[in-house]
Specification:
Blueprint lengths: L17 H55 L2 E4 L5 E2 L2 E4 L8 E5 L2 E5 L6 E2 L6 E8 L4 E10 L10 E9 L4 E7 L3 E2 L4 E12 L4 E8 L10 E4 L5 E5 L12 E3 L1 E3 L1 E6 L6 E5 L4 E3 L5 E10 L8 E10 L11 E9 L3
Antiparallel strand pairs: 1-3, 2-21, 3-4, 4-19, 5-18, 6-14, 7-13, 7-15, 8-12, 8-18, 9-10, 9-11, 9-13, 14-17, 15-16, 19-20, 21-22, 22-23
Length: 334
């Protein structure tokens, strides 16, 4: 008998169909997208929370330190009563720590930061400009001018500022100008401009114009000098010539522009002859530091303190940026 060998049936091959493969890819892709989105959201939330906490904690600590120092002081040296300034000088009981001075680091000023002893007249409808030489290279984005005691009622209560490059005799090129800004009397008034580069050793002119309703309103403070420092010319308010010449004056107006050097600004203190000490860490920067002397008659002194704390983002990353302005008032102890 012939024996037949029984062969197993042909083994059928199995695998994924194209549709199944596409479904699997879609599922995995969706899962990865969800994971990445969740991770990104978590990171953003962490950065946001850290930024808010850092700014709030640093700002509160700085304000507490300054106001406590004011309360412990014996008198306010500067700014003078009714005036505002970017630094505060206090006389304190401990002789070795007096004077105690608060100011900003990481920047220098282009201009004249002293409040002039005289008030100009007829600034309305006229450009008044003072020349200054930059002491460092950087950028300016805010111009300041100190306006005297009288400001016209609205709508004649606004001013504008501009910055020019130029020679020692005249402004030759308009670099930037501000929009109209409502003026405050007996105060430093801030005028925002587009960020403008300045170079150490170069001459720049800071200029001011206003729309006051009379010759005694909206005028700048100034001090006289021994040489020609300023010029003026009639100019319709709201427009700036690209270059110009005018009548020279032996005076300098109280106006300036902080130069940002790229180093984050810190609020700093100097006690007596000791070294300057930064009060905030390098995770935040401080700007807009202003001290206003609110002292009333027959009182030892009162100061309003204002500054803005911002999160530092040196690489310009697309992350949450946070800033907060702090304002408080403290009185010298009786």
């Amino acid at each position: 008998m012939r024996i037949q060998r029984l062969l197993p049936p042909a083994h059928r091959q199995s695998g994924y169909t194209l549709i199944e493969l596409l479904l699997y890819v879609a599922m995995v892709g969706g899962l990865l997208t969800s994971v990445i989105f969740f991770y990104s959201t978590t990171i953003d939330a962490r950065v946001k929370n850290q930024s808010i906490v850092e700014v709030n904690d640093q700002g509160a600590a700085l304000m507490d330190y300054i106001t406590q120092t004011i309360r412990n002081a014996t008198s306010i040296t500067s700014p003078t009563t009714g005036a505002s300034a970017t630094s505060l000088t206090l006389a304190v009981p401990t002789g070795s720590l007096s004077p105690t001075v608060f100011s900003l680091s990481g920047s220098s000023n282009l201009g004249y930061t002293t409040i002039g002893g005289s008030t100009d007249a007829g600034d309305s409808g006229s450009i008044n400009a003072t020349k200054f030489t930059a002491s460092t290279t950087g950028t300016v984005s805010t111009l300041y001018a100190y306006v005297g005691a009288t400001v016209s009622a609205s709508p004649n209560n606004v001013g504008q500022m501009a910055i020019y490059s130029g020679t020692s005799s005249a402004p030759t090129a308009l670099l930037a100008s501000s929009s109209s800004t409502a003026l405050a009397a007996n105060s430093w008034n801030a005028f925002s401009i587009a960020s403008t580069a300045v170079t150490s050793g170069q001459i720049y002119w800071l200029a001011y114009n206003t729309n006051g309703s009379g010759t005694s309103a909206n005028n700048l403070k100034f001090d006289t000098t021994g040489a020609v420092q300023s010029i003026y010319k009639t100019q319709t308010f709201g427009s700036w010539p690209s270059s110009w010449t005018g009548t020279t004056q032996n005076l300098q107006f109280s106006m300036y522009a902080p130069i940002t050097t790229g180093t984050p600004a810190a609020l700093q203190v100097q006690e007596g002859s000791g070294g300057v000490v930064a009060l905030n860490n390098d995770l935040v920067t401080v700007s807009g530091l202003t001290f206003k002397n609110l002292t009333r008659a027959s009182t030892p002194g009162s100061v309003q303190v204002t500054f803005t704390v911002s999160r530092v983002n040196p690489n310009g990353k697309n992350e949450f940026d946070y800033q907060r302005t702090f304002t408080d008032t403290a009185e010298v102890t009786w």
